[in-house]
């Protein structure tokens, strides 16, 4: 017996497939997505989550029986990251919403800007196979949407918890972290061992900016901190420096904006639009000299950032983005008749 899509008064049941979620021992990079998952629950979605732990690639195959069982009791499956989209298709009874996160469409780059063969194969698979096996696609930026054209996509970047990420007294934040209250700290918002994030370039930028200002600058990687420490680290920093080669819609830039911490960033993903003409922020060519000049100018002037108000004006909060995602779920279910949930 077929069942119509859930009434709007009835709780949506969604199975979420995603990369490994953060733990105290392994904070990883999925903390923003975890906050977005919770915002969906807060909005009334009955969300069940299966994250991918275990050996690389093999872990997806190991989840097939679990996913097929879990799919029977939900309305749809929402996959985060390309390989999770392929895993989601192991069942045929439920529609799939596919969220590409960035590297699964843009690829991983080495320090010299080259994309390894394995990453090229992954990009091809996601663009031409995974994307055609799902009911709806969500991407983080117009740049990603263009790479999937002519397929229709929804552009929805992650929302930010503007209650957790809010301006705080810098001295108090540094006291909490045992940072020197008199030093200048530039935050590198990524794993320094990830080559496409450009840590060596960030080191060059900071070295040149230090020479221009005639004072020491410490480059502090945002890695190894528990998710609930990140707002404190943001507020303890004088500036956030992102030197990535490719991004979708980098959460750390939006988190810095929410804290009104200045940002200097390469022109990746949706950052040029987010920071366009925004006081206290700069988008620069991915060049050490240009970025160093921007860092030095912002540190010298002390120009405050106006990022928080822009985030709020664009409704890039957790609740605002959660509602847009729920609207996608509803639109998918309105065009898909489902067998009864078990």
Keywords:
Rossmann fold; 15 helices; alpha/beta; single chain; five-stranded parallel sheet
Map the helices and strands:
Blueprint: E1 2-3, E2 13-19, H1 31-42, E3 46-52, H2 58-62, H3 64-71, E4 76-80, H4 82-88, E5 96-99, H5 103-106, H6 117-128, E6 136-139, H7 142-148, E7 154-155, H8 170-177, E8 185-188, H9 199-213, E9 218-221, H10 230-236, E10 239-242, H11 251-258, E11 263-265, H12 271-274, E12 281-283, H13 288-301, H14 307-313, H15 318-334, E13 338-339
Parallel strand pairs: 2-3, 2-4, 4-5, 5-6, 6-7, 8-9, 8-10, 10-11, 11-12
Antiparallel strand pairs: 1-13
Structure description:
The chain is an alpha/beta fold and 342 residues long. Helices cover 39% and strands 15% of the residues. It is built from 15 helices and 13 strands. It has helices spanning 31-42, 58-62, 64-71, 82-88, 103-106, 117-128, 142-148, 170-177, 199-213, 230-236, 251-258, 271-274, 288-301, 307-313, 318-334, and strands at 2-3, 13-19, 46-52, 76-80, 96-99, 136-139, 154-155, 185-188, 218-221, 239-242, 263-265, 281-283, 338-339. The radius of gyration is 21 Å and the shape is globular. It starts with a strand and ends with a strand. The mean pLDDT is 90.
Domains, number: 2
Strand fraction = 5-15%
Which fold name corresponds to the CATH topology of the largest domain? Rossmann fold
Give the name of the CATH superfamily of the largest domain.
Answer: Glycogen Phosphorylase B
The first-level CATH class name of the largest domain:
Alpha Beta
């Amino acid at each position: 017996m077929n069942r119509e899509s859930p009434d709007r008064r009835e709780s949506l049941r969604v199975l979420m497939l995603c990369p490994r979620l953060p733990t105290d021992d392994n904070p990883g990079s999925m903390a923003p997505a975890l906050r977005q998952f919770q915002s969906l629950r807060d909005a009334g979605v009955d969300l069940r989550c299966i994250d991918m732990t275990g050996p690389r690639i093999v872990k997806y195959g190991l989840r097939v029986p679990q996913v097929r069982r879990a799919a029977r009791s939900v309305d749809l499956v929402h996959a985060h990251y390309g390989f999770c989209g392929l895993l989601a298709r192991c069942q045929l009874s439920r529609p799939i919403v596919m969220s590409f996160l960035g590297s699964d469409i843009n690829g991983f780059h080495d320090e010299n800007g080259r994309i390894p063969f394995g990453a090229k194969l992954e990009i091809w698979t996601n663009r031409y196979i995974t994307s055609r096996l799902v009911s709806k696609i969500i991407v983080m930026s117009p740049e990603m949407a263009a790479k999937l054209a002519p397929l229709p996509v929804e552009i929805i970047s992650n929302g930010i918890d503007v209650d957790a990420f809010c301006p705080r007294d810098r001295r108090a934040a540094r006291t909490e972290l045992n940072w020197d209250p008199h030093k200048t700290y530039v935050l590198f918002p990524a794993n320094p061992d990830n080559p496409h994030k450009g840590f060596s370039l960030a080191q060059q930028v900071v070295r040149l900016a230090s020479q221009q200002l005639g004072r020491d600058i410490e480059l502090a990687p945002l890695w190894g901190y528990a998710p609930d420490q990140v707002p404190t680290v943001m507020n303890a920093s004088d500036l956030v420096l992102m030197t990535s080669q490719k991004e979708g819609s980098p959460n750390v830039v939006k988190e810095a904006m929410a804290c009104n911490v200045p940002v200097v960033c390469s022109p990746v993903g949706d950052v040029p639009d987010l920071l366009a003409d925004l006081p206290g922020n700069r988008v620069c060519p991915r060049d050490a000299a240009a970025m160093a000049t921007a860092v030095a100018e912002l540190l010298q002037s002390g120009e405050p950032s106006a990022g928080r108000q822009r985030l709020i004006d664009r409704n890039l909060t957790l609740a605002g983005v959660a509602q847009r995602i729920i609207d996608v779920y509803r639109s998918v279910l309105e065009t898909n008749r489902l067998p009864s949930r078990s």
